[in-house]
Design a protein that fits this description.
single chain, alpha/beta, Quinone Oxidoreductase, Chain A, domain 1, Rossmann fold, 2 domains, 7-stranded mixed beta sheet, 6-stranded parallel beta sheet, 26% strand
Length: 335
């Protein structure tokens, strides 16, 4: 099988490996569609850092596949079924989630059970959209941890795949209005196409725009936009200070972006403003179920955020394209 191997910064090789064979409890997956994660771009440019992608290994973890072969003791699946391999368990070791093998033609899933190592994908979900399950579960978990209530208002920073996923999750979980903030006109156009209010903070006064959209509320520390939830899915170090400075009393801040170094927190605003900073912790199986239900509903045209699709032979070009925020949103490999 053809496989992309991560060797270090700016060093990816396409290699022919032996296609794995199934044991009695295993399934062999043929990959169909694999997304380029921001972590894939980061390790390509800078090295593994905090990301669980190892040198000399297969990588790619945003993937939808089909059953190519299965062991005699596997139940609940059939050859040809489309499935989502759950990165935390598909290889039997959560620390290898980033080395799942989405950028290879095949993945072997040992000791496979439906609803644990793999999840069946409903026919109502198009294959390219199913390739968004993994990043959307990251976003969904972050939003769920922020405990959105019916009718609340929210701002999402970052209109990448996870930011869009967070906006979708917020609306699906009852938010009345969601604004998406970014610097890329392309990405904001995609967000607007899905029905979200947008703000390009490079050209607009963010605080004023938020006040116009959501109204304002007076608190002990002053007057602030009447926003209940902020989701930070962008990553600039200075952004967290911006969010804290504009968050009203009782606001919840979901910190989903991965920062390369520690970020300062204003403890005065945290204390007097009763702000909550919430870490999402990745995702759980229930997030997979919820995300697939959203995709099955067809409420959002999620295929519209896939801006580029490449063959595996062009994996380096795909990763470099995914790193260009001005010209790309979600970039994928199609097999």
């Amino acid at each position: 099988m053809k496989s992309a191997i991560y060797n270090g910064p700016f060093d990816i090789t396409l290699t022919e490996l032996e296609t794995p064979t199934c044991g009695p409890r295993d399934v062999l997956l043929r990959n169909l569609h694999a997304g380029i994660c921001g972590s894939d771009v980061s390790v390509y440019r800078h090295g593994p850092g905090a990301h669980q992608i190892l040198k000399g290994e297969q990588f790619g973890h945003e993937v939808v596949s089909e059953i190519a072969e299965m062991g005699s003791e596997v139940t609940g699946l059939s050859v040809g079924d489309r499935v989502y391999p759950y990165p935390l368990t598909a290889k039997g070791d959560p620390s290898r989630a980033g080395c799942l093998g989405g950028f290879s033609e095949y993945i072997l899933v040992p000791n496979c059970h439906v609803g644990e190592q793999v999840f069946k994908v409903d026919d109502r979900i198009p294959t390219p959209v199913a390739g968004l399950i993994e990043p959307f579960t990251v976003a969904h978990r972050a939003v769920r941890r922020c405990r959105p209530q019916q009718g609340e208002k929210a701002i999402v920073f970052g209109a990448g795949t996870i930011g869009i996923g967070a906006a979708v999750a917020l609306k699906s979980l009852g938010a009345a209005e969601v604004m998406v903030v970014d610097l890329s006109d392309l990405r904001l156009e995609k967000a607007a196409g899905l029905g979200f209010v947008t703000c390009n903070s490079a050209r607009e006064d963010l605080r004023r725009r938020a006040g116009e959209v959501f109204g304002e509320v007076k608190t002990l520390l002053g007057t602030f936009p009447d926003v209940d939830i902020y989701v930070e899915a962008a990553g600039p170090d200075e952004l967290f200070a911006t969010i804290q400075s504009m968050a009203k009393s009782g606001a919840r801040i979901g910190a989903v972006a991965v920062h390369p170094k520690p970020v300062a927190v204003d403890l005065v605003r945290l204390a007097y403003g009763e702000q909550e900073i919430i870490g999402p912790g990745g995702y759980r199986p229930e997030d997979v179920v919820d995300v697939m239900k959203i995709m099955e509903s067809g409420r959002f045209d999620l295929a519209s955020i896939i801006t580029h699709t490449f063959e595996l032979d062009r994996i380096i070009e795909a990763i470099e394209t995914a790193g260009d925020r001005e010209s790309a949103l979600h970039v994928a490999i199609a097999y």
